[in-house]
């Protein structure tokens, strides 16, 4: 079984540019989560999809961040326009049921210069 | 105050040693608790869930004290491969869905 895959693994962009991160959850997992870790801080929740619906987006920092999961399969997280403080590692995770353990992807390391 | 507090370490121990990590959480309504392991530049991986009665998985023992809002992880007979960052994680979701809150992690270095 393929794990959670994220693309790209690294992205370096300039302040003001747009970046789109992609996450492919484990096949059949209805629950998809986005988390991020900024330098020196703990991993923090961003949002949770159940299929294509946003269950909880309380962790999204501001309206420069837009997450989508059209069709309930893969998800994208777009940052537009990127700011320096958006630098960090963005993790995606999925689970089959709401109470099942989360499986994390390898993360996308985003650097905004 | 952070919702989940951990000593960042690092803990430097020799092979074979026993080491204990502690963690406290502030949300008394938290429903479930976990220890995750994260290797350098890798994703977090679930090590074990933590139950009120305490639970053991090989060399690893986890304990939860709900009254004190305190979680612990004990590693016996440390191996070089145990070197990693150990993350204390609390599920603070209150609608039946998971919303994990992570501690900053405790770094463990096991030396020969």
What pair of chains forms the biggest interface? A-B, 22 and 22 residues
Alpha-carbon Rg of chain A, integer? 13 Å
Mean pLDDT of chain A: 95
Summed up, the helix count of chain A is: 0
Strand proportion of chain A, as a percent range, falls in over 45%
Q: Specify the overall morphology of chain A.
A: globular
Class from secondary-structure proportions of chain A: mainly beta
**Radius of gyration of chain B in whole Å, from Cα?**
14 Å
Structural class of chain B: mainly beta
Portion in strands of chain B? over 45%
Total number of beta strands of chain B: 11
- Average pLDDT confidence of chain B is 94
Largest sheet of chain A: 7 strands, mixed
> Which regions of chain A contain 5 or more consecutive residues with pLDDT less than 50?
none
Order of helices and strands of chain B: EEEEEEEEEEE
**N/C terminus separation of chain A:** 37 Å
Q: Helical segment tally of chain B?
A: 0
Q: Count every beta strand of chain A, where a strand is a DSSP E run of 2 or more residues.
A: 11
The best one-word shape of chain B is globular
Low-confidence stretches of chain B: none
Could you walk me through the main structural features you see in this protein, from its secondary elements to its overall organization?
The complex is a heterodimer of chains A (113) and B (112). By secondary structure, chain A is an all-beta fold. Chain A contains no helices and 11 strands. With 112 residues, chain B is mostly beta strands. In chain B, strands 2, 4, 5, 9, 10 and 11 form a 6-stranded mixed β-sheet that branches. In chain B, a hairpin with an 8-residue loop joins strand 9 and strand 10. The interface between A and B is medium-sized, with 22 and 22 residues.
């Amino acid at each position: 079984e393929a794990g959670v895959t994220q693309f790209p693994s690294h992205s370096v962009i300039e302040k003001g540019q747009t970046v789109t991160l992609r996450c492919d959850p484990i096949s059949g997992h209805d629950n998809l989560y986005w988390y991020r870790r900024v330098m020196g801080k703990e991993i923090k929740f961003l949002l949770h999809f159940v299929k294509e619906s946003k269950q909880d987006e309380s962790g999204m920092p501001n309206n420069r961040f837009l997450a989508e999961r059209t069709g309930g399969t893969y998800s994208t997280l777009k940052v537009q326009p990127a700011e320096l403080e958006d630098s960090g590692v963005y993790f995606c995770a999925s689970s089959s049921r709401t109470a099942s353990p989360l499986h994390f992807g390898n993360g996308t390391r985003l650097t905004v210069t | 105050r952070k919702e989940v507090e951990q000593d960042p370490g690092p803990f430097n121990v020799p092979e074979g040693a026993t080491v204990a990590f502690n963690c406290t959480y502030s949300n008394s309504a938290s429903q479930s608790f976990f220890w995750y392991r994260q290797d350098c530049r890798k994703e977090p991986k679930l090590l074990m869930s933590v139950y009120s009665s305490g639970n053991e998985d090989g060399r690893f023992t986890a304990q939860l004290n709900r009254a004190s809002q305190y979680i612990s992880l004990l590693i016996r007979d440390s191996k070089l491969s145990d070197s990693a960052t150990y993350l204390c994680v609390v599920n603070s979701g209150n609608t039946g869905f998971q919303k994990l809150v992570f501690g900053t992690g405790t770094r463990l270095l096991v030396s020969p």
